[in-house]
């Protein structure tokens, strides 16, 4: 294990992926604040702001699955290059059109849909690239995945705060240009420093059907992918409800909602940093299943009438367990897929999870208003418990189902 840790620390290609991921994700977090702000500046309508953000989710959900065909044909390295380049160009288009006076809500919606369309293939390609870069060892791949997730979670923690400062000083259009520059920087790093040998040898034409059949043919792949989709639906619903939760607990405020989200983020970051230590004692598959079962149980306290402090503690715990289990889950699932079908299969699975998350985010507010927060919490707990059961069931799949080739 110490040797595996050393290899990751000195792995040039992994360092390139890490820097590129942190750079592009930091830019994305800048835009996560700047885009709604610019919409409000442009139209003054919270409804229009919701439409723009929904358009990006629609792009993720609607085009992500069909991107499996592209991902399977051109390979993960090229998909990531295309994704960074195209998304950067679209984001840069927004401040340009705003400066020219040509930006309206319709154009905004089209651009954000296009940005979302490239997200799922990019993320899945990154996941399928890691086994090519660091090898097929579960523990080593889990460490590499945790390293990338650490970069992502650091950007999520610091990006929104930095964006607020930059918007106040420079304005939202300039911040969007910084995001576009982050995509361009990431693309340049990948193009210059990521070896072409990271492209797998293709033995057939990748397709949506091939990726879906691969998931359905293996019990672990199918049940874990469904479990991740249910979990993502619960997560996004919970995040969407944080402002509502804050306002209904001791007359909370936006600061309370931000603090609650930060509690989750801090817990998730701590859990990710613990992955390497835990893998010295547990196999990746054991850590994945144990972590997901504990995560399902950790959601149960949401059924109780919690005050803000107790809710913050619950969010720290579920964030910690999410951080501990996410990288091993990703590693075990990636290695279970035959290498020749890895990109398209992971694109399908990632798209389904993101679509479920978008659905959870979209329905959370309406469900809370019509049925009340206690009812929604019961649904969230049920989703996470079902997800945990699916992980346990999938882990019992026969070992001979595992396919490397």
Polypeptide structure, described:
With 405 residues, the protein is mostly helical. The protein is built from 16 helices and no strands. The radius of gyration is 20 Å and the shape is globular. The model is unreliable at 1-6 and 400-405 (pLDDT under 50).
Question: How is the topology of this model organized?
Answer:
Elements: H1 2-9, H2 12-43, H3 46-64, H4 67-74, H5 76-100, H6 105-117, H7 119-134, H8 138-170, H9 172-193, H10 208-217, H11 219-248, H12 254-279, H13 284-298, H14 308-336, H15 342-371, H16 373-395
Helix pairs in contact: 2-3, 2-8, 2-9, 3-6, 3-15, 4-5, 4-7, 4-15, 5-6, 5-7, 5-9, 7-8, 7-15, 8-9, 8-12, 8-14, 10-11, 10-15, 11-12, 11-14, 11-15, 11-16, 12-14, 13-14, 13-16, 15-16
Shape: globular
> What share of the residues does DSSP label as strand, in percent?
under 5%
- Rg: 20 Å
The helix content is over 70%
How would you characterize the largest beta sheet? none
Counting DSSP E segments of at least 2 residues, the number of strands comes to 0
Written as H for each helix and E for each strand, in order along the chain, the element string is HHHHHHHHHHHHHHHH
Question: Helical element count?
Answer: 16
Low-confidence stretches: 1-6, 400-405
What structural class do you assign from the helix and strand content? mainly alpha
What separation lies between the terminal Cα atoms?
Answer: 25 Å
Mean pLDDT reading: 82
């Amino acid at each position: 294990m110490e040797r595996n840790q050393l290899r990751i620390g000195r792995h040039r290609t992994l360092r390139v992926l890490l820097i590129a991921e942190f750079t592009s994700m930091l830019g994305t977090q800048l835009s996560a604040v700047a885009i709604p702000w610019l919409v409000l500046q442009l139209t003054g309508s919270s409804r229009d702001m919701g439409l723009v953000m929904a358009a990006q989710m629609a792009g993720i959900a609607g085009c992500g699955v069909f991107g499996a065909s592209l991902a399977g044909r051109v390979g993960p390295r090229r998909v990531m290059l295309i994704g960074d380049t195209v998304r950067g160009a679209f984001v840069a288009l927004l401040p340009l059109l705003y400066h020219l006076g040509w930006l309206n809500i319709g154009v905004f919606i089209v651009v954000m849909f296009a940005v979302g369309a490239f997200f799922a293939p990019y993320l899945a390609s990154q996941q399928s690239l890691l086994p090519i870069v660091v090898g097929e060892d579960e523990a080593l791949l889990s460490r590499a995945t945790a390293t990338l997730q650490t970069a992502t979670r650091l950007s999520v923690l610091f990006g929104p705060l930095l964006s607020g400062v930059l918007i106040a000083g420079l304005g939202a259009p300039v911040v969007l240009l910084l995001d576009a520059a982050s995509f361009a920087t990431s693309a340049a790093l990948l193009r210059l420093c990521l070896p072409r040998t990271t492209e797998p040898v293709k033995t057939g034409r990748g397709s949506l059907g091939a990726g879906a059949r691969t998931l359905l043919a293996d019990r672990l792949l199918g049940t874990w992918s469904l479990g991740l989709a249910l979990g993502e639906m619960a997560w996004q619903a919970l995040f969407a409800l944080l402002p509502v939760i804050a306002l209904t607990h001791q007359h909370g405020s936006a600061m309370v909602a931000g603090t609650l989200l930060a509690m989750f983020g801090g817990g998730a970051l701590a859990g990710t940093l613990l992955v390497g230590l835990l893998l010295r004692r547990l196999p990746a598959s054991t850590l994945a299943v144990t972590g997901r079962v504990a995560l399902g149980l950790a959601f149960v306290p949401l059924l109780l009438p919690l005050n803000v402090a107790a809710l913050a503690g619950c969010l720290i715990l579920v964030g910690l367990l999410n951080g501990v289990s996410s990288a091993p889950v990703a590693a075990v699932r990636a290695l279970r897929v035959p290498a020749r079908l890895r990109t398209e299969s992971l694109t399908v699975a990632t798209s389904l999870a993101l679509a479920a998350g978008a659905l959870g985010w979209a329905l959370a507010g309406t469900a809370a208003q019509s049925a009340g927060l206690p009812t929604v919490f019961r649904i969230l707990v049920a989703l996470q418990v079902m997800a945990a059961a699916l992980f346990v069931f999938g882990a019992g799949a026969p070992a001979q189902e595992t396919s490397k080739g």
